[in-house]
Amino acid sequence: MNGTGLNPLYEKVITDLVEQQYSVVENFFSATEVLALRESLLVKYDEDMFKKSAIGNMANEVIVEAIRGDFIFWLDESIYNSAERQFFDKINDFTTYLNRTCFMGIADQEFHYAVYPPGTFYKRHLDTFQNDSKRKLSIVCYLNDEDWLPEYGGELTLYHTNDGVETALNIYPVQGRMVIFESQVLEHEVKPVQQERLSITGWLKSRPEIVF
């Protein structure tokens, strides 16, 4: 935070979102914080606490391995460990900043750990459900081994349209890299992985709309 009350890192993210609907950040979390989250994920995964992911919202969930192949563990902010507390503290600070400076109206969030075993993927999709527009920003932070190589695959591909022309942006899941993008705008996919791919993923959400 500088003397003007502005956070340069947060301001970069905001500028990116305004100009291109996504932001790629290399230093949102420290290396120590990333490694602590990675260890927390691996402990839970080794203890068989993850479940097979599904598509659709909670009322209409269905497992379709031809579309999505990862395993997930939903995080509960009320019972987190020290690594997860640091994560949520920083996410909450970022959310407060967005609401104060951009009037985003973010009132809720949901996050989970995700593991993609070798050979799995997530086909092209949009991070919103029919008749549910609460998800505003999608966030993913990669927790892979520090020597992750491009040939391991698992890149996040964002499909961005400018002046009617669609371009595909491939973002490799390098340890500590964080990607933030507009949930209701950018379709995306996770390409097939050759090595186990780890991340913490979630959404910043608005209040439910009140229907009279």
UniProtKB/TrEMBL annotation:
Cofactor(s), by name: L-ascorbate
Q: Which residues form the Fe2OG dioxygenase domain?
A: 106-206
User: This protein's superkingdom?
Assistant: Bacteria
Q: Which UniProt keywords apply?
A: Dioxygenase, Iron, Metal-binding, Oxidoreductase, Vitamin C
Record-level GO BP terms: cellular response to hypoxia
GO molecular function terms listed in the Swiss-Prot or TrEMBL record = ferrous iron binding; L-ascorbic acid binding; peptidyl-proline dioxygenase activity
Q: Which residues form a coiled coil?
A: none
* Family matches, as InterPro entries: HIF_prolyl_hydroxylases (IPR051559), Oxoglu/Fe-dep_dioxygenase_dom (IPR005123), Pro_4_hyd_alph (IPR006620), Pro_4_hyd_alph_FE2OG_OXY (IPR044862)
Checking PROSITE patterns in the record gives:
FE2OG_OXY
Is Amino-acid biosynthesis found in the keyword set?
no
Q: What is this protein called?
A: 2OG-Fe(II) oxygenase
Which species is listed as the source? Answer: Flavobacterium arcticum
Q: What is the lineage of its organism?
A: Bacteria, Pseudomonadati, Bacteroidota, Flavobacteriia, Flavobacteriales
